[in-house]
Amino acid sequence: MKAAVFLSPNQIELREVERPRIGTEEVLVGVKVAGICGTDARIFKGSKKIPAPRIIGHEFAGEIEEVGARVKEWKRGDRVTVEPIIACGRCYCCLRGRFNICLSRPTIGYEYDGAFAEFVRIPAEAVARGNLIRLPDEVSFEEAAFAEPLSACIQGNERARIRKGDRVWIMGDGPIGLTHVQLAALSGAGTIILSGTDPKKLEMGRKLGAHHIIQVPQQDALAEVNTLTEGEGVDVGISATSVSQLVEDCLNKGLRKGGLLLIFAGVPPDSLARIDPNRIHYQEYTITGSSGHSVETMRQSIALIRSGSFRVHPLISHRLSLEQVVEGIHMKDRVEGLKHLIIMD
To answer: Which fold does the domain 153-289 belong to in CATH?
Structure first.
């Protein structure tokens, strides 16, 4: 089969490799569409370390090509997407239902070969834990390939605890920020403020539910937020970009009393934000993070897409071939476009 194999930082080669062989409790999925994630770009650059050689890619959808002899609930031709994080079910996080932060969490595309290939093997433990998710006919492969980033945002949205009428400030106009815009609207937010640097992406955010957009650095985001909220600040701030300064700004000047800051996006190593503990104490701020997703949030993703409540297609900016995967990774790293999909022949 054809596969884009990560060999070392800044080196991915398109190769003919052996098609994966599956065990009696495993499943082989023929990949139809795979998404390029910011983590894939970090792996390519070497800032996220994984074993090599490795086929990366963890956002994907396709059809089951082969099932192991002991697999009864699936058959060849079933349309699926896959939760790539394989929770152990035994650590203290899993026992508390927090499967997204499982202590071991081997992942397809990191510890196991992933979806930048014609076929991907789904390990027995993933099949057993329900990581294969059946696609309804109404959900296309392109939409289903976005279920993983949507799932991560659903996990974050649950942590943000947005209530009806809340004022929400989403920092970052990439596909993740625009996903949070849609989820905030579905949660009943009364005012959604989106800040970012790209006028086209900001306008897309407005179409997807943002009430106000702020283009930086042309506009002072904090000043605009305070003007829009009559000096009170927002109930919920969502950091959906890797600029750590925004964490500091939102905590020190952007939240209203009793507000919550969700740190959703990772930042470069050694990044720091200065926090005044007295503001957290006297204003009763909540600071929380969100990482990963689970089988349950993946199922919620598919349900939202199926119902039409969440719109994927406005977020797709590039459709590329497997031969163009490195080009797509470079575009992702340059923040060029929104969502980049690899379409298999």
So the answer is: Rossmann fold (3.40.50)
